[in-house]
Amino acid sequence: MSSQDLSSVRTLPELFAWRASRTPSGDAYRYFDGASTKWMSFTWKESAGHVARCARALSAVGLPEGARVALLLPNGPRTVFLDQAVLARGCVPVPMHALDNSASIAYILSDSDASLLIAENDKQWQDIVATGVPLPALKGVVVMEMGEAGSAAGGGTPVWTYDEWLSAAPGDDRSLSMRLPEPSDLAALVYTSGTTGKPKGVMLTHENVVSNVKAVMQRIAADETDVFLSILPLSHTFERTAGYYLPVAAGACVAFARSTKLLQQDFQMVRPTILISVPRIYERIYAGVEAALSTSKLKLRLFRLAQAVGWRRFCRAHGLSLADRLIERAGDALAWPVLDRLAGHLLARQFGGRLRLAVSGGAPLSPAVAHCFLGLGVPIAQGYGMTEASPVVAVNMRADNDPSTVGRPLPGVEIRISENGELLVRGSNIMRGYWKRDADTASAIVDGWLRTGDRAEMDSGRIRIVGRAKEIIVTSTGEKIAPADLELAITADAAFEQAFVVGDNRPFIACVVVLGGAYWNELAISLGLDPRARESLKSQKAAEAVIRRICGLTKNFPYYAQPRAVVLTREPWTVENTLMTPTLKLKRNNLSVRFAQDIDLIYKK
Question: How far apart are CA 565 and CA 544, in angstroms?
Fold first, then answer.
């Protein structure tokens, strides 16, 4: 296959084999080895060998074609090898987030009729068994690590260690029968995040995913010199397509980040050239820089001045609308070299110093973050997509970038705006449908057009998302508010790490906010409160001070949309405590339950 080009590739196994044959000695994957405390790497040839060995082990289990294989694993080369092995044997990966709760995992295993589960450890399996969810289709479980006592739980389901499972496989393929998948076969059964209910299994074919990879390649133009830093879970379609399959097509190396806590260190060690992530990661970096500079009013003022001047320069360079004056233009030209030297490079250094493209997707990017990054020379490009579209629909480019939009549609992707303003999408990237949910499929895809649920408008060929049709708060007075817009405005301030807006069927808008540590300490002390005491967060004085600040941040919204009450907390919302999805979106139903009493109380005052 090495003599063929990318256009001839039709399935994901073909894509991986094509890459391994073209650049066998190139670096494919890097990971941090805790034992040696060093970054280790695999070449494409070595990676292909690991895939082949895992594929033989899968064949030895005797799974039928199209069988679902659930992968409950953290990011890393081994997860890639297993995913590729499942695909190579004509089976269907069911990627799951390694930190998801056991009830959600058990639901996905049951709904997908998974035949095999591959998990990180036997404790995960024991927790799944403890949910009591019947799993009649499950033929076996493979665990990377077994506890000292072993795994006795499981109701008779065989449990093997990874090493046992591999050692039982034949040494070559001669004794195995296999059929490589066709483009129309399923390449993944990906369960949506479930921000407002139980997740649905999205059926993506090889044609869906490969066509999307090829289209993204035309927009991002990655190559063999690039290094990606993988942060998002491989269970999410955005990471699978843009952070995993795209580097295979490009021959780029993927380094797997150790954790979000060590992200800053990983940036400096890996020094990525391309980053695929969600807004929350960029917001954390932005807030971290501002917090670090907050101890010096002069440094913070210079940094913000550099942002403002840099953003104006960016707008001029890209033909974006700007209330520009000749004297201001001349002043910016004179000031920029000094500001760039004093503050401009500060942000770029946070990413290791050689980032040439940062793609943001999965949720709206805060304008404040976009203006800061682009103004200071960090090329961030906002895109748009959804799992049902494999997932990328549109993305800005470095040379054609308007951060108030999500860019132009990818090649081969058609879009139109319905009469009620909903964005509709059509193309070879659109899912086959939802697993075992014909009614939901018929509702989502009408005459070949995928209903995104997002309201949009066109701006010079670019798509601008103007709201979420399904995430609208309707107050008891009949006013309609998009909560995501308010939440973005609030979290643009480093004082607020996270925000959750409420008010459906209520007389006014309120919110729950996670306070930043520095802001809360300063505020509490100024009010004579103990910042370490839980009861201080219930203080009416503190709530009034916070809501005044929030009103300032939301002053450009209609009066009825501005929050009038607030619940304060210091505990972050995470995937682990089930308040965020794996791609760091708010789980609104879970948050409503968690803060139900506090929310009811503020509406009774």
Answer: 8
